[in-house]
Every structure is written in C-alpha cells, then in structure tokens.
Design goal:
about 400 residues; mainly alpha; PX Domain; Substrate Binding Domain Of Dnak, Chain:A, Domain 2; 2 domains; three-stranded antiparallel β-sheet; about 70% helix; about 10% strand; Sorting nexin-7; PX_dom_sf; PX_dom; transport
C-alpha cells in the first residue's frame, strides 16, 4: 500500500504523536447517511426446567417507509440469530453473510454464563446485525425486518412457515452430492484467484489470531505478577528505615505500570482480539460462498455435457441451460460485488485495528517510561540534598 509506505517514511514535517498519526490512516470517504440503527444490549438470563439461556434486547430505529413504526424493541436469544443467518444464506447463497460468534466455547477458556462471555457475545451480535443493516442487499430482506420487529410469539410463528426438516435435509444432501462430483471445469479465473487468496488469507489470519491470544495471555500473567510485586516493596519498606521512601516510590511506580498494563490488556481484548477472530470466522463463510458458486457452475456444466450427449430433448435442455446460465451470471455478479465490498471493509477494519493497537502500545510505554523517569529524577534530587547536608 503506497499510502502506508508514505506514512512509514516519517518525514521531518510529518506529525508522529499518537493523536496525529491516526489522521494519516483516514483515507475513506465519509459514510452515507444511514436510515437504520440497531443496538443489542441488556442481556438477561432465563432459567427453565429444560434449559438456561440468555436473551438480548434489540432496539431498532429507522426512517424507512416499509417499517410501520420508527422504533422497535424486541428480545432475541442466540438461536434466533442463527435462524436469521440461515435464512439469509438460503435466500442469497453467493452473498457474504456476516459471521456469528460460535455457539460453543472452548472448555477452560471462560464460563459460558460469565459476565465476560456474555458481554463479548453481545458485542459480536451487535456487530452482526449492523453488518447486515449496512449491506445494500441483505438489509432489505423480509426475514431481517421480521427479526427486528416481531414479538417473540410472532417470530416463533413465522419460523414455522419455513421449509420442514425433511426439505432442509434434502437440500443438504443435494449440496453435498454436488460438491463431491469433482472440480469445476469452466470456473472463471477471477474465482480461482479468490479461492487462492482466501487460502492464503486463512493461514495468515489464523496465525495472527493465535499470536494475539498468546500475547494477551502473557500480558495477563505479567499483570498478575506485577500485582504481587508492588506490595512486596511496601512491606519491605517497613523494615528498612533508611531506604523506606525509595522502596515506597518503587512500589508506587509498579502500581502505576500495573494499571497501565491493565488498560493495555483491555485495549487488546476490546479492539484486536474480536476483529481478528471475526475474520477467522469470515474465512469459513467465504470458502462456503465460493463452493456454492462452484456448485451452480457445476450444475450448468453437467447440463451442457448432457445436452452434448443427447440428441433428443434438446429444447428442454436448452431451456434449462439458459436458466442456469442466468443463475450463474447472477451468482458471479453478486459474489464479485460482495467480494470487493468485503475486501474494502476488511482492509479498513485491519488498518483501524492495528493503528489502534499501535497507539495503545505507544501510550502504554510512554506512560511507564514517564513514571520511572519521574521516580529517578526524584531520587537524584534526594541524593543531592543528602550530599549537600553531609558537606555542611
């Protein structure tokens, strides 16, 4: 990226303070005026004889004419979000549907109903709905409108109107059967490039995700040790009268650095980790979208082969091929447009995320450095005072 290279050149006239560096990265135009605002908040626990689950309040404010009111407030549980995602994938198989946080969590990482887990999931669900709201096609899907506006019993009734279990199983079997028939013969080069890009992107983003979690874990261990390190100096000062003030000063510096470390950890957990993990989930979604596009292409290829091998029923096959050609063209256009949009969003998110991490690190080290420099300066003054008193 040439613009990033220019920023990294650090010309003498270029401001390099944390507050001014961020301005060097703001290349995007201002977003268009929005007419749909969604907030996910106020998680509530529900305990029944059968299960325990969390619901979230979804508040929608809009000026769109297709909505009967300008504001809605409903409560949704995780499985309602899953239903919405599946309906969007079913209706738009070659569009990039935003990811949801995983339903299950790794054992030993965090408790399922802990405040930390619930808050992390709430933020992810909030981002999921707003990603859909900002999408030029998904935002106008009827099931999205129902999700935002229907009360719980209305949504439950609406869900029952969808395809039954056997129908869904049949669709899954057909999709799997189509995917194992072999590679696509006539795949356009642009989609081969997309597939190669995603394979590389998947490897890189997974490595970044693992490293970021390791850094956060090491920071937490360091933080826990610092919390024990400071009080030891305070206790020590009680038995060392001659150096008591210096030991207390060290303890104070450690306490300030400990608080700075805690803020740095919060920055990692709130800004870096969620973004990286979201794009880890995006890799599976994009690979799935590319496979579904290939399935449509494969169906067209099989019909073309069948037409070449059969002398009869040419009119019927020609009509089916015409429909499939239209379907493939629509799928290709939809995916290419969504791909460009996704890449722009990804690059913008990554730029903003790593810039925030860099500024967070700058603030952290500057704060810790200033803390210890101030302490050393005070010790130098005290030393001069003692030397003057000895001379006198």
């Amino acid at each position: 990226d040439a613009s990033l290279a220019e920023v990294n050149s650090f010309s003498p006239s270029m401001p390099i303070s944390p507050s001014s560096m961020i301005n060097q990265y703001k290349f995007e135009d201002e977003p268009e005026l929005r007419d749909l605002f969604i907030t996910v908040d106020d998680p509530e626990s529900h305990i029944t004889a059968i299960e325990t689950f969390i619901t979230y309040r979804v508040v929608t404010k809009t000026s769109r004419g297709e909505f009967d009111s300008s504001e809605y407030e409903v409560r949704r549980r995780y499985q309602d979000f899953l239903w919405l995602k599946s309906k969007l994938e079913e209706a738009h198989p070659t569009l990039i549907i935003p990811p949801l946080p995983e339903k299950f969590i790794m054992k030993g990482m965090v408790e399922r109903f802990s405040d930390e887990f619930i808050e992390t999931r709430r933020k992810a669900l909030h981002k999921f709905l707003n990603r859909i709201a900002d999408h030029p096609t998904l935002t106008f899907h009827e099931d999205f409108k129902v999700f935002l506006t229907a009360q719980a019993w209305e949504l439950s009734s609406h869900k029952k109107q969808g395809p039954g279990l056997l129908s869904r199983v049949g669709q899954t079997v057909r999709a799997v059967a189509s995917s194992v028939r072999g590679g696509v013969k006539n795949r356009p080069e642009v989609f081969t490039e997309m597939n190669d890009y995603m394979e590389t992107f998947s490897q890189k983003i997974n490595v970044l995700d693992k490293i970021a979690h390791r850094i956060y874990k090491e920071q937490r261990e360091y933080f826990n040790e610092m919390k024990e390190y400071g009080p030891i100096h305070t206790l020590w000062s009680a038995s060392e009268e001659d150096i008591a003030d210096s030991l207390k000063g060290v303890a104070s510096c450690i306490d300030k650095c400990c608080k700075a470390t805690e803020r740095r950890m919060a920055g990692l957990s709130e800004s870096l980790l969620p973004v990286l993990h979201e794009y880890v989930l995006y890799t599976d979604i994009l690979m799935g979208v590319l496979k579904r596009r290939d399935q449509i292409q494969g169906e067209l290829d099989s019909k073309v082969d069948a037409l070449a091998n059969k002398k009869t029923e040419k009119d019927l096959f020609s009509e089916e091929i015409g429909k499939l050609e239209d379907k493939v063209e629509c799928a290709n256009n939809a995916l290419k447009a969504d791909w460009d949009r996704w890449k722009q969003n990804m690059q913008s998110d990554m730029r903003a995320t790593f810039t925030h991490v860099a500024e967070n690190n700058l603030r952290y080290y500057e704060e810790c450095l200033a803390t210890w420099q101030s302490f050393l300066a005070s010790q130098a003054v005290d030393l001069h005072v003692e030397e003057d008193s000895e001379d006198r």
